[in-house]
């Protein structure tokens, strides 16, 4: 089984890395970008018998800081 986890900062949480990207894009002439939120994508290859609940448990315990980040899971 393969799963893809998308992790993003929650709305309202300052994203300095995203702001740095927005600023750099503006400096390169891409001045129509009003905001950037940067996240991460984690691809997992799991053993047979794994479930979406297992991936959720991984997200809650390690892959996402649920205080400031949200996540979504895709089963591929």
UniProtKB/TrEMBL annotation:
GO cellular component terms attached to this protein's record: cytoplasm
Matches recorded under Pfam families: PurS
This enzyme's EC code(s): 6.3.5.3
Plastid among keywords: no
UniProt GO MF annotations: ATP binding; phosphoribosylformylglycinamidine synthase activity
SUPFAM superfamilies (UniProt xref): PurS-like
Subcellular location, principal: cytoplasm
Subcellular location: Cytoplasm
Enzymatic class: ligase
One Gene Ontology biological process: 'de novo' IMP biosynthetic process
Pathway membership, UniProt: Purine metabolism; IMP biosynthesis via de novo pathway; 5-amino-1-(5-phospho-D-ribosyl)imidazole from N(2)-formyl-N(1)-(5-phospho-D-ribosyl)glycinamide: step 1/2
Keywords, alphabetical: ATP-binding, Cytoplasm, Ligase, Nucleotide-binding, Purine biosynthesis
InterPro entries noted in UniProt: PurS, PurS-like_sf
Catalysed reaction, written as an equation: N(2)-formyl-N(1)-(5-phospho-beta-D-ribosyl)glycinamide + L-glutamine + ATP + H2O = 2-formamido-N(1)-(5-O-phospho-beta-D-ribosyl)acetamidine + L-glutamate + ADP + phosphate + H(+)
Protein's job: Part of the phosphoribosylformylglycinamidine synthase complex involved in the purines biosynthetic pathway. Catalyzes the ATP-dependent conversion of formylglycinamide ribonucleotide (FGAR) and glutamine to yield formylglycinamidine ribonucleotide (FGAM) and glutamate. The FGAM synthase complex is composed of three subunits. PurQ produces an ammonia molecule by converting glutamine to glutamate. PurL transfers the ammonia molecule to FGAR to form FGAM in an ATP-dependent manner.
Stated family: Belongs to the PurS family.
Summary of subunit composition and partner proteins: Part of the FGAM synthase complex composed of 1 PurL, 1 PurQ and 2 PurS subunits.
Protein name (Swiss-Prot/TrEMBL): Phosphoribosylformylglycinamidine synthase subunit PurS
Lineage: Bacteria, Pseudomonadati, Pseudomonadota, Alphaproteobacteria, Rhodobacterales
